[in-house]
């Protein structure tokens, strides 16, 4: 493990503890802010996620979005590959997707223009610390090379961390939505 890997592992451990405490204190979180933000993108192909463990739950917003256009959820590929997204509808049959995830048993591939992205920690500049596999970074880089994509981090406010150990390959978020606020990332001059 490199020095940066160890620093990221420590940052993840601290963030997981904060996320778990927020989950226990506020579950279920209201998704009203996420629904409101996604209203601006109504009808555009969306990728959400099916929450696991202490992740904040985007399902109410995904149900609303599915009334207006396709909604996909991630299918985890082999290490080193970007994610693909399988169409999800409320009440669809789910199967084991590996790595503790579930995915729709059937469904067309969705190529999202808007992604609701799970995370471990975030900062107000749009930085995101994920689980460490780089799946969303590769996916966002690939999608952004094709055209405009909006990446919306969805997290408990307690997951905010101003000291994230980020790398050049870490893709930035365009917005962050918490249970309390919508954050438009700022870019510091000279940062």
TrEMBL record:
<dbReference type="InterPro" id="IPR037171">
    <property type="entry name" value="NagB/RpiA_transferase-like"/>
</dbReference>
<keyword id="KW-0479">Metal-binding</keyword>
<protein>
    <recommendedName>
        <fullName>5-formyltetrahydrofolate cyclo-ligase</fullName>
        <ecNumber>6.3.3.2</ecNumber>
    </recommendedName>
</protein>
<keyword id="KW-0436">Ligase</keyword>
<dbReference type="Pfam" id="PF01812">
    <property type="entry name" value="5-FTHF_cyc-lig"/>
</dbReference>
<comment type="similarity">
    <text>Belongs to the 5-formyltetrahydrofolate cyclo-ligase family.</text>
</comment>
<dbReference type="InterPro" id="IPR024185">
    <property type="entry name" value="FTHF_cligase-like_sf"/>
</dbReference>
<dbReference type="InterPro" id="IPR002698">
    <property type="entry name" value="FTHF_cligase"/>
</dbReference>
<keyword id="KW-0067">ATP-binding</keyword>
<keyword id="KW-0460">Magnesium</keyword>
<dbReference type="GO" id="GO:0030272">
    <property type="term" value="F:5-formyltetrahydrofolate cyclo-ligase activity"/>
</dbReference>
<keyword id="KW-0547">Nucleotide-binding</keyword>
């Amino acid at each position: 493990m490199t020095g940066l890997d160890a620093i990221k592992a420590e940052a993840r451990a601290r963030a997981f503890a904060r996320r778990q405490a927020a989950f226990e204190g506020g579950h279920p979180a209201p998704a009203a802010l996420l629904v409101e933000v996604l209203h601006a993108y109504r009808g555009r192909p969306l990728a959400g996620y099916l929450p696991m463990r202490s992740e904040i739950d985007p399902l109410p917003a995904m149900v609303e979005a599915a009334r207006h256009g396709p909604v996909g959820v991630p299918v985890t590929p082999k290490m080193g590959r970007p994610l693909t997204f399988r169409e999800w509808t409320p009440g669809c049959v789910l199967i084991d997707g590996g790595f503790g995830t579930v995915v729709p048993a059937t469904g067309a591939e969705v190529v999202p223009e808007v992604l609701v992205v799970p995370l471990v920690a975030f900062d107000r500049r749009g930085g995101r610390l994920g689980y460490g596999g780089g799946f969303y970074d590769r996916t966002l880089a690939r999608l952004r090379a094709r055209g405009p994509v909006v990446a919306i981090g969805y997290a408990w406010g307690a997951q905010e961390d101003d000291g994230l150990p980020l790398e050049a390959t870490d893709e930035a978020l365009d917005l962050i939505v918490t249970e309390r606020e919508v954050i438009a990332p700022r870019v510091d001059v000279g940062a």
